[in-house]
Amino acid sequence: MEEHPELMPLLTVAGGPMRGASFRLRVEPQVIGRAPTSHVVVHDPHLSRRHAEVWLASEGPSLRDLGSTNGTWLNDRRITEEELLADGDVIRLGRTELRLFDPGVAHTDPVGLDFGPSRRDIRPTLPLPLAAPPRARR
Question: How far is residue 32's CA from residue 47's CA, in Å, rounded to a whole number?
């Protein structure tokens, strides 16, 4: 899959100081933190210098807290061990919120909005004709 980077899972900053930034997961672990030596530097004072790491394992995207002070949260649950991620998962580090978009299995868009099942069999609706304005009474 690394020969097709557009198919690699994508983490997007959905909330916090760096909203809109995104990065692709790789097989090798990437450290997320506020230290300039981190692979993914996030400018959030509530993050540890080396807060968490993410990588693409053979089982799927994975996340691990690196002993951070404020913890790493996955879908509003503090994690203490390595966790597998799924499309649409929300990761909170400090005051930064990341959303996972996995194009290989996606049911969401890159920032995690769910549009439900595909509706290719339904034709688009045409606008209704404009109604004539009501007549003035005499």
Answer: 9
| pLDDT tens-digit map of 3-60 | 556 678 899 999 988 898 999 999 999 999 999 999 999 999 999 999 999 999 989 9
Q: Report the phi/psi class of residue 71: left, alpha or beta, with left for phi > 0 and alpha for psi in -120 to 50.
A: left
Pairing mode, strands 40-41 and 60-65 = unpaired
pTM given for the model = 0.72
DSSP secondary structure letter of residue 69: S
- pLDDT above 50: residue 120: no
Token couple for 92: 């909170």
Q: In angstroms, rounded to a whole number, what is the distance separating the alpha carbons of residues 41 and 127? A: 48
CA distances from 84 to 64, 91, 103, 124 (A): 9, 12, 16, 38
Amino acid, res. 54: V
Instruction: Pull the structure tokens for residue 8.
Output: 């690699």
Cβ count within 10 A of residue 48 = 21
Per-residue pLDDT tens digits for 78-97:
999 999 999 899 999 999 99
